[in-house]
Specification:
103 residues; mainly alpha; two-stranded antiparallel sheet; 3 helices
Length: 103
């Protein structure tokens, strides 16, 4: 499996997990973040990171998922406030005139 394919699969997995966590009450999420941290730490050690490096990687990953959950929550709140049926603008970084495109 190529690195690109593995990265795509990982990002899809993280996205699905963030969507599921965003649907949970906030007080039920910490257990899931701990499980993410634990599984990432084991995986990082499995691919050769030292225990210290693996812990840093796992903390970064759990923080990333936590941030994605925050983004999903903000997006859901702003979608509820939309009065029309148009999709929200999609931000593109690096190119284009103003960085916003409607699909």
């Amino acid at each position: 499996m190529s690195v690109g394919t593995a990265l795509e699969q990982l990002l899809r997995l993280i996205h699905r997990r963030a969507m599921k966590l965003a649907a949970l009450p906030e007080d039920e999420r910490d257990l899931h973040y701990d499980l993410i941290r634990l599984s990432c730490c084991k995986a990082a050690e499995h691919i050769g990171q030292s225990p210290d490096e693996a812990a840093i990687t796992a903390n970064d990953m759990a923080g990333f998922v936590r941030a994605l959950v925050g983004i999903v929550e903000v997006g859901c709140r702003s979608d509820q406030g939309r009065s029309d049926d148009r999709p929200p603008p999609i931000r593109h970084f690096g190119g284009g005139e103003n960085g916003t495109t409607r699909i």
